[in-house]
C-alpha cells in the first residue's frame, strides 16, 4: 500500500457539493482508503481565461495499492462522471482531481508527472496538503 495525496478543486456549479461527490466516489473505489480530508479553502483562478469564478480547493490523503497510472485513470473517470468537460487549459471546471504525490515516486511521462509540477508554487495546494500530511 502506498500513501498518496490528491488535489481537489472546483469553480463551477455547487463547488462544495462537487468536491464532496468526488470524495465519496474516491472513497467507494476498491483498493483505496481515504485517510484524511483537508478543509476547503477559496482561491482565485491561476492562469486560464479571465472572468472565471473563485475556486474551492482541498487535498485528500489516501492509501492505495493501485498503480499511479490506474489511479489517474480512475480519477479522470470520476471527473467525467461529475460532468467535467475539458475546454481550454486552466479553464473553469466542475471538478479537478490531481495526483500531487504518490509515495516517494518520481514519474515524468506525457500523461503523468509526479510530484505535480506546479504544486509547490500554489498556496491553495500547499496549505491543505500541509494540513493532511
What number of structural domains do the residues give? 1
Helix share, percent: 25-40%
> Can you count the beta strands?
7
Order of helices and strands: EHEEEHEEEH
3D structure, described in words:
This protein has about 130 residues and is of the alpha+beta class. It has one domain: 7,8-Dihydro-6-hydroxymethylpterin-pyrophosphokinase HPPK (Alpha-Beta Plaits). The protein has helices spanning about 15-30, 70-80, 125-130, and strands spanning about 1-10, 30-35, 40-45, 55-65, 95-100, 105-110, 115. The mean pLDDT is about 95.
Secondary structure layout:
Blueprint: E1 2-10, H1 15-28, E2 32-37, E3 41-43, E4 55-64, H2 68-81, E5 96-102, E6 107-108, E7 113-114, H3 123-132
Antiparallel strand pairs: 1-4, 1-5, 2-4, 3-4, 6-7
Name its key features.
133 residues; alpha+beta; Alpha-Beta Plaits; 7 strands; 29% strand
Short description:
By secondary structure, this protein is α+β, with helices and mostly antiparallel strands. The protein has helices spanning 15-28, 68-81, 123-132, and strands at 2-10, 32-37, 41-43, 55-64, 96-102, 107-108, 113-114. It has a single domain, classed as 2-Layer Sandwich (Alpha-Beta Plaits), CATH 3.30.70.560.
Amino acid at each position: 500500500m502506498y500513501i498518496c495525496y490528491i488535489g481537489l478543486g472546483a469553480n463551477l456549479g455547487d463547488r462544495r457539493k462537487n468536491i464532496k461527490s468526488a470524495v465519496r466516489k474516491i472513497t467507494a473505489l476498491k483498493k483505496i482508503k481515504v485517510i484524511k480530508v483537508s478543509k476547503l479553502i477559496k482561491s482565485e483562478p491561476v492562469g486560464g481565461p479571465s472572468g472565471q469564478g473563485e475556486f474551492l480547493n482541498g487535498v485528500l490523503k489516501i492509501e492505495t495499492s493501485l498503480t499511479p497510472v490506474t489511479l489517474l485513470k480512475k480519477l479522470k473517470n470520476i471527473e467525467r462522471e461529475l460532468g467535467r468537460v475539458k475546454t481550454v487549459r486552466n479553464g473553469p471546471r466542475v471538478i479537478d482531481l490531481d495526483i500531487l504525490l504518490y509515495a516517494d515516486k518520481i514519474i515524468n511521462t506525457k500523461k503523468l508527472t509526479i510530484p505535480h509540477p506546479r504544486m509547490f508554487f500554489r498556496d491553495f495546494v500547499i496549505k491543505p496538503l500541509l494540513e493532511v500530511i
